[in-house]
Amino acid sequence: MNPTARALEATFGNAIGRASELRDGWTSVTVRADRLRDVMAWLRDTPEQRYNYLVDITAVEYRDRERPLEVVYLLRSLERKSNLRVKVELDPRGELAVDSVTPLWAGADWLEREVFDMFGIVFAGHPDLRRILMWETYSEGYPLRKDFPLRGRFSRAEQVRQALNVNPEANYSLEELSIAESYDELPADMRERLRRGERGKVAGSE
Amino acid sequence: MTKRTVELELATPGVDAQGQPARLPLVADEPVLGGEHLLINLGPQHPATHGVLRLVVELDGETVVRVIPHVGYLHSGFEKLGEYRHYNQIIPLTDRTDYLSPMANNVGFALAAERLMGIEITPRCTVLRVIACEMSRIISHMVWLGTTAIDLGAFTPFLWAFQERERIYNLQEMWTGARLTTSLTRVGGLMADIPDGFVDALRHFTQTFPNTLYEIDRVLTRNAIWAGRTQGIGVLTAEEAINYSLSGPMLRASGVPWDMRKDQPYLGYETYDFEVPVGEHGDVYDRFLVRLEECHQANKILIQALDRLPDGPINVSDPRVILPPKSRAMSDMEAMIFHFKQVMEGVKAPVGEAYVGVENPKGELGNYLVSDGTAKPVRWRIRPPAFINLASISKMSEGHLLSDLIAINASVDIVMGEVDR
Amino acid sequence: MASTISLDAFLLDGVIDVKHVLETKEIAGSPNYHLTSWKRLVDWAVNQSRANSLWPMPFGTACCAIEFMATAASRYDIARFGMERQAFSPRQADVLICAGRLPFKLAPVIRRIYDQMPQPKWVISMGACASSGGIFDNYAMVQGIDTIVPVDVYVPGCPPRPEGLLYGILLLHKKIKGESLFDAMRRRDEQPLDEHGLRLPPAEIDEVSEPFGNSVHQFRSA
């Protein structure tokens, strides 16, 4: 068992749930969602811990509806060659929101976007949370949820129709449109559309 | 010039629990530079993006101010498919994520499944898997070398590199029957043992392959154009590389001496004598040197592996996991029942989870498997090295020229099948 | 005969020789389409030049793109068959080779690239995923690019061997040599059918995308 688990329990008390040793030799601890930011900062910055490398962020939804949906963080300390798995449990039927760890590890940026895209978990504080693997106006749902069927919710013809009517250039990100100098050069209808908040719907593309 | 901030109310694509779009205000600062910036679109169909990658580039003249990559144009739903397949049925899917080094992906997944099920593979299987991984390293780096050289204007190394790939493809075809989609491993062993003549053919390859590497080295390494286009380009310091979760040659070129084969070994890599090249400057040139040297080291490992290849079975002798030989399955009742259960129901993994990270040519490939006791995993997560490495491209390209962006994009060594899965 | 022997010496199997062209009455797609001999000669000349210098637009997405690159490399050289220059701009391409799987996110892109190609244009669907969706019968994958663009030659395989792709290219050559400039029905169907941009009726798309075979296990999760 990784000694970090004991140190975490000593420092954060009841925000840390059960620690267990897994089949692959990693130690896993559960953290309460509201203390996640503090725990992660402590893990990264404390001199004895120094988990400076984020291996992966993912989410797991179980087939058993009673089990919580877990957001899993795989951390590693390169200098101590030590691995740790941190899990946050969410209610699959409730609101899925968790703090973003992008301020701590820059690699979390795209990983959290992917978890948002596939599961619908919103990461508070993420600089640019939008879909990354599906197109931004994808309306079928969140693919990796267990109630999402393998072949999708719509019929094949409807999926083709929706896919063909996505204008690839209409979906610019917040960052791209923040080029404020070119904002004045955008066509008037696009500016209007942006003000109204209708992203992804270009007139004539429907 | 006065700084002007514009308040834009934009709808984010995020939705809250009621399914309504969540709105966040955005305050954007005007860039304090004279002249207009150009927003151009590179891709998703473009010869130099190494697949279907879309880069939106903000240019100030020829200088890149910002790059925003858009991925997902090859998203194939692998992880969702994995929840509907038995563990052995997932192996052919793993060929198609990183299709430049299929055997290495097969091995990575099989290791994760075996760790989950608590299976120890045989010594011969271990050495054969090392051979498969190093062959994959060579072919992946050969594609990288060929396509990067083409992007920077050198066409001939592409043909030399692909000729070496053809020789490895012959070996792969000799072993598994397929050039590219090998599906080499099974949980607990391999799909087949190496045929007669394989060891001699591979030994011959290891003797002649260094000549091609020396040719490529002679053409590129001290070439003024090559050095001019790659030195000092796309620099990432060691701290930035660690913070961006880079892995593989990208991480090592920035000076971080981390290699899964040395630091968290698997398949007996601690018993092989090889070196891990580590760069210094973290630029495109260092990544090139690191990958070129890795090919030499892979060759060295192949020679050692061939020398120590032990005899014995390639599969575990557990009949619940490995299909019995066909002759016995057709004649012996017990073997027939084992065969039936494995094919119809699949091998059931115990409840639990396992993550195994291996050193793929592109970086650390991780397979995270969660099981609830059934034959199909609850969650199959691929930790994609190319996806995570690609996220750093916006940091690396700021301030460089547009043609440097092509070189930087090439140096990340992406394969869109793995980026998008 | 003497005059054709020297000509035959340069001709390979499968290439129509001039004498045969002038004697045959039926060439174009419709079996009852008759041509006068000068039109046949024009067709022969045009088709020869079109078929023997097809410039491919490699719309390579996944694993098949690697086999396409291997076909273009020195061992299986497609430059021998006229595909010397890979046209990465669709405006300068003749044949769109869709090599690899096509997710829904990429569908408008291939449609736009196909629309940007000038006539005459052909499409080769390389691999199982481009032809039918392949092993990816899920929410993200187009079940065959023929639901989006008209396809001339399907090359099966996962991925097809370079020899397989070359056979497909030679089949396309044969198809091109059977075409006629004077055929009014040629290339009639490349306009989308309805205002949504679909070129097949929705019922047909659904029927073509149905799962193959009767295995229910592949859609059962546990």
Short summary:
Chain A has 206 residues and is α/β, with parallel strands linked by helices.
Written account of the structure:
The complex is a heterotrimer of chains A (206), B (421) and C (222). Chain A is an alpha/beta fold. Chain A is built from seven helices and seven strands; from the N terminus they run H-E-E-H-E-E-E-E-H-E-H-H-H-H. In chain A, helix 3 links the parallel strand 6 (97-99) and strand 7 (122-124). The longest helix of chain A has 12 residues, at 108-119. Chain B has 421 residues and is an alpha+beta fold. In chain B, 46% of the residues lie in helices and 16% in strands. Chain B is built from 17 helices and ten strands. In chain B, a hairpin with a 7-residue loop joins strand 9 (363-371) and strand 10. Helices cover 36% and strands 8% of the residues of chain C. Chain C has eight helices and four strands. Chain C has helices at 2-10, 18-23, 37-52, 63-72, 107-116, 128-132, 162-177, 202-208; strands at residues 56-60, 95-99, 122-126, 153-155. In chain C, helix 3 packs antiparallel against helix 7 and helix 4 packs across helix 7. The N and C termini of chain C lie far apart (72 Å). Classes of the chains: A alpha/beta (206), B alpha+beta (421), C alpha/beta (222). At the A-B interface, strand 3, helix 3, helix 5 and helix 6 of A face strand 1, strand 2, strand 4, helix 1 and helix 8 of B.
> Helicity range of the residues of chain C?
25-40%
String of helices and strands of chain C? HHHEHEHEHEHH
The number of E-state strands of chain C comes to 4
The total count of helices of chain A amounts to: 7
Order of helices and strands of chain A: HEEHEEEEHEHHHH
The strands making up the biggest β-sheet of chain A line up spatially as 1-2-5-4-3
Computed CA radius of gyration of chain A, to the nearest angstrom: 20 Å
Largest sheet of chain A: 5 strands, mixed
Which regions of chain A have little confidence, pLDDT < 50, spanning 5+ residues? 200-206
- The class by helix and strand makeup of chain C works out as alpha/beta
**Count of DSSP-assigned helices of chain C:** 8
Distance between the termini of chain A: 57 Å
The averaged pLDDT of chain A comes out at 84
Strand proportion of chain A:
15-25%
Poorly predicted residue ranges of chain C: 1-18, 21-32
Question: Largest chain interface and its two residue counts?
Answer: A-B, 69 and 75 residues
Structural class based on helices, strands and sheet pairing of chain A:
alpha/beta
Mean pLDDT of chain C: 80
Strand order of the largest sheet of chain C: 1-2-3-4
Taking all Cα atoms into account, the compactness measure Rg of chain C is 19 Å
